[in-house]
Design brief:
With about 130 residues, this protein is mainly α. The protein is about 45% helix and about 0% strand.
């Protein structure tokens, strides 16, 4: 009986040592925030709703965009703030109606208005803007 009591005590000590070794790692792992999703926003001039294969176009082949649509989140109910590129970009970047600007944003910029990329950068995202 002494050896089994001794074995049981030793097993208890080993368990305590193991828990002491693992517990801080569990706390660190539990404190990690969940991973943030990647965000890719594509604004294309003159691209109609049905102009992509994933939207049912009868002959357009857009395999890379179709794969993005399958693997990502698709927003299919939306409005743009203008019929040309600058008002559309202005609306997306600032959530403001382009007519509220005193000067045309293409030449004067967004002024003091905070953009979506600034907000994303503030919470740790790396941002990029490509194109116009």
């Amino acid at each position: 009986m002494i050896t089994s009591h001794h074995s049981l005590a030793r097993a208890g000590v080993n368990l305590i040592v193991l828990l002491v070794a693992i517990f801080p790692r569990l706390l660190v792992h539990a404190a990690e925030p969940p991973p943030r999703p990647n965000i890719v926003f594509i604004l294309a001039d003159d691209l109609g709703y049905g102009d992509l294969g994933c939207q049912g176009h009868p002959y357009a082949r857009t395999p890379h965009l179709d794969r993005l649509a399958r693997q990502g989140t698709r927003f299919q109910q939306f409005y743009v703030t203008g019929i040309t590129c600058c008002p559309s970009r202005t609306g997306f970047m600032t959530s403001k109606f382009p007519a509220t600007y005193r000067a045309y944003p293409a030449g004067a910029g967004f002024g003091e208005r905070i953009t979506v990329t600034e907000l994303l950068r503030r919470v740790g995202y790396a941002t990029g803007h490509f194109g116009k």
